[in-house]
C-alpha cells in the first residue's frame, strides 16, 4: 500500500489568525512523496486557511458538519457551505463528538451520507474506550461502529471514505497503542470491510491510526502492514512537529 494520508485535527485550538500562520508555516515544509497532507482547523478558520494553502499540496478538512442540507438548524454548517470554502474532507464520528455531543452511529451514518452526496470525503473515526479494551471487546466495538456507521453505503461511495482508528484511551493521553496492537485492529477493520464490500475494496481503503502520534513514534506505526496514515491532534498544532510527522 503506497498511499498515506496524514491529517492534523486542530480541534478547539487556533484563532483564524493563528490558524493562518500555522498553515503558512506548513506550506513552507517539504513533504515525503506518496504522503497526502490534510489539515482540519475550526470552522471559523477554514476560509483563512483555504486562502493560505491555495496552490500547495495541503488539503483542507472540516471537523464536523450537519447532516441537514439547509433550513432551521441554528448554529449548524452544511456540506455545501464547506464545499464552497474549498473543503475536501470532513472528520466524522470523532470520539469527542460521540462523548460530548451525543453522536451515535446512526447520526454519523446520516452525516457520512450527506458528505458523500455533496462530493466531499468523510474521515470516519472509530475506536474503543479503555474499559472496552480491558474487557477484550476492542475488536467487537470497532466492527459494530463500522457496520452501523456504513449502513446503506455503496461500494462506490466506500471507495471515497477514509477510516481513522483512534482508541479513545490513547487520545491526548500520551499513551499510544503499540504498533502491533494498532495494526491488529486495522487488520480486523479491513476484514470487516471485506465482508461488507469486497476484499479488493477493503485492501484499497486508507486506514489511519490516531492517538498520541508523535515525531518519535510515527515511523514504527507507519511501518505496519495495514496502517496507512495518521490522524494527529496535539502534535499537529506546531509546524515543526507536524512537518516531522510528514517526513516519517
Ligand atoms: P492526540 O494526537 O492529541 O492524541 O489526538 C488524537 C486525535 O484525537 C486526532 O483526531
Structural class: alpha/beta
Task: State the helical fraction.
Answer: 40-55%
Small molecules in complex: 1,3-dihydroxyacetonephosphate
Mean pLDDT: 96
> How many individual helices?
12
Strand residue content: 15-25%
What's the CATH class, please?
A: Alpha Beta
Determine the CATH topology: TIM Barrel
Q: How is the largest sheet built, in terms of strand order? A: 1-2-3-4-5-6-7-8
**Large-scale geometry:** globular
The CATH superfamily turns out to be Aldolase class I
Question: Under the CATH scheme, which architecture would be assigned?
Answer: Alpha-Beta Barrel
Number of domains: 1
Q: Encode the helix/strand succession as letters.
A: EHEHEHEHHEHHHEHHEHEH
Summarize the topology:
Blueprint: E1 4-9, H1 16-27, E2 35-40, H2 46-53, E3 58-62, H3 79-84, E4 89-92, H4 95-101, H5 105-117, E5 121-126, H6 130-134, H7 138-149, H8 155-158, E6 162-165, H9 179-196, H10 199-204, E7 207-210, H11 218-222, E8 229-232, H12 239-246
Parallel strand pairs: 1-2, 1-8, 2-3, 3-4, 4-5, 5-6, 6-7, 7-8
Helix pairs in contact: 1-2, 1-12, 5-7, 7-9
1,3-dihydroxyacetonephosphate (13P) binds at residues 9, 94, 166, 171-172, 210-213, 231-235.
Task: Explain what you see.
The chain has about 250 residues and is α/β, with parallel strands linked by helices. It has a single domain, classed as TIM Barrel (Alpha-Beta Barrel), CATH 3.20.20. The chain contains 12 helices and 8 strands. The protein has helices at about 15-25, 45-55, 80-85, 95-100, 105-115, 130-135, 140-150, 155-160, 180-195, 200-205, 220, 240-245, and strands at about 5-10, 35-40, 60, 90, 120-125, 160-165, 205-210, 230. The chain has an 8-stranded parallel beta barrel, surrounded by 6 helices. α11 links the parallel β7 and β8. The protein is globular. 1,3-dihydroxyacetonephosphate binds near residues 172, 213, 231, 233 and 234. It holds the Pfam family TIM. Its EC number is 5.3.1.1. InterPro entries: Aldolase_TIM (IPR013785), TIM_sf (IPR035990), TrioseP_Isoase_bac/euk (IPR022896), Triosephosphate_isomerase (IPR000652), Triosephosphate_isomerase_AS (IPR020861). Pathway: Carbohydrate degradation; glycolysis; D-glyceraldehyde 3-phosphate from glycerone phosphate: step 1/1; Carbohydrate biosynthesis; gluconeogenesis.
Amino acid at each position: 500500500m503506497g498511499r498515506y494520508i496524514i491529517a492534523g485535527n486542530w480541534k478547539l485550538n487556533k484563532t483564524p489568525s493563528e490558524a493562518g500562520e500555522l498553515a503558512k508555516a506548513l506550506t513552507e515544509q517539504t513533504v515525503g512523496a506518496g504522503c497526502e497532507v490534510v489539515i482540519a482547523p475550526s470552522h471559523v478558520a477554514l476560509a483563512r486557511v483555504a486562502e493560505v494553502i491555495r496552490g500547495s499540496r495541503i488539503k483542507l478538512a472540516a471537523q464536523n458538519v450537519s447532516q441537514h442540507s439547509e433550513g432551521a438548524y441554528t448554529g449548524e454548517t452544511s456540506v455545501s457551505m464547506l464545499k464552497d470554502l474549498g473543503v475536501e474532507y470532513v472528520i466524522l464520528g470523532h470520539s469527542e463528538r460521540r462523548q460530548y455531543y451525543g453522536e451515535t452511529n446512526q447520526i454519523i451514518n446520516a452525516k457520512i451520507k450527506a458528505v458523500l452526496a455533496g462530493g466531499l470525503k468523510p474521515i470516519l473515526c472509530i475506536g474503543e474506550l479503555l474499559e472496552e479494551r480491558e474487557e477484550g471487546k476492542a475488536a467487537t466495538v470497532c466492527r459494530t461502529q463500522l457496520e452501523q456507521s456504513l449502513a446503506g453505503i455503496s461500494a462506490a461511495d466506500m471507495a471515497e471514505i477514509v477510516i481513522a482508528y483512534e482508541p479513545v484511551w490513547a487520545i491526548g493521553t500520551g499513551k499510544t497503542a503499540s504498533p502491533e496492537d494498532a495494526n491488529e485492529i486495522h487488520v480486523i477493520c479491513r476484514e470487516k470491510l471485506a465482508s461488507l464490500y469486497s476484499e479488493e475494496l477493503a485492501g484499497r481503503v486508507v486506514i489511519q491510526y490516531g492517538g498520541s502520534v508523535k515525531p518519535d513514534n510515527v515511523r514504527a506505526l507507519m511501518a505496519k502492514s495495514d496502517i496507512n496514515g495518521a490522524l494527529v491532534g496535539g502534535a499537529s498544532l506546531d509546524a515543526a512537529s507536524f512537518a516531522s510527522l510528514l517526513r516519517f
